[in-house]
Amino acid sequence: MKKIITIVGARPQFIKAAMLSRVLADYQGLEEIILHTGQHYDHGMSDVFFSEMNIPRPKYNLGVGGGNQGAMTGRQLEGIETVLIDERPDCVLVYGDTNSTLAGSLAAAKLHIPVAHVEAGLRSYNRRMPEEVNRVLTDHLSRFLLTPSHKAALNLAREGLEDGVHFVGDIMYDAALFYAGQTASRVGTILDRVHQTLDNFVLVTVHRQENTDAPDRLEAILDALRQLAADRPVVLPIHPRLRKMLEAGGKFDEMTLGLTIIAPVGFVDMISLLQAASLVLTDSGGVQKEAYFHGTPAVILRDETEWGELVDLNWATLCPPNSPAHILAAADAMTGRTGDTEATPYGSGDAAERIAAILLDEL
Ligand code: UD1
Ligand code: UDP
Question: Residue 41: CB within 6 Å of ligand 1?
Fold first, then answer.
């Protein structure tokens, strides 16, 4: 029996882990233990995913959330190392590019435990993003580089990483397909809750540090959203980072005037909103792709994207959020747009099966 420790901490990692845990549970030769760093801890940012998506209860929760980049990563590193020394797993599984990802891969690599990185090879080539630092380092520490796109494998090759690279497709595509079938009974409920009807509203998420922590960009985004809301409803499930930033500035009500602000929602409700919206505005890695998976055009509120296929296929446009006019023009241009529906840049929706097979084979 081979033992795998899965390290998760942030919302998108729970969704990815849900897909793989379900498959790993069916493999006789593998035992999975889940370690939650505690990076995300509100009910709506963490527990809701464990219960809704039947993710096995974490055996460990380190309770390390909040704080500066170094402090958070360092405290997670220390806690993870202790668990790994105790458990002596055959492999550590990490997802994406958060501080929990880097802490997990660094702790494992120093203990000579093979690291499997799901979502390897993504690059923005912007080292000012904490995520870019986390993902580059994690890739260089990993034995198994499990890529979501062919572009990702090319990025790795450019850095001399070719051994252990496996194209498996995007595990978020697995999740999109799996849960799309469950929205039928829920879509009415969530739309009623946000007082919207089908195809009538814009869905927005904003949480990137480079937007929330840059006053000019945040003001440009919220100014554009308020103008957009004069024309059509704007629904914004608010990430705690954005909420905290607006509350700290003392202008929450003024800045969000006219917007439909709701608490973060569970994954099935989120998919229902993505399917029903006429347009998505987001700086989220996951949400920009899910808009495409569910056939909704998107404006990416960033300077660059790790998911350039979305722009190439005309499902999304990049819009550095430096002026309201720029954002409104991008929203207008994307409304009603349908991109390429034939291409399959992110695999076949069987990334979890492929990853499990690789791990069983290689360990
Ligand atoms: C983190 C990841 C980012 C990912 C995002 C997913 C890093 C560097 N960033 O960003 O890559 O896209 O998660 O959502 O790892 N907070 C709460 N309650 C919570 C969670 C967070 O109040 O449940 C607060 C924290 O205390 C902190 C702020 O929100 O003040 C930001 O949280 P943090 O985990 O540092 O970064 P995210 O912006 O969530
Ligand atoms: N998500 C969710 N509820 C919300 C907002 C987002 O379930 O209120 C999901 C979203 O559908 C996607 C994931 O969370 O699957 C993305 O997480 P986030 O935007 O926080 O992080 P990123 O993908 O940018 O790392």
Answer: yes
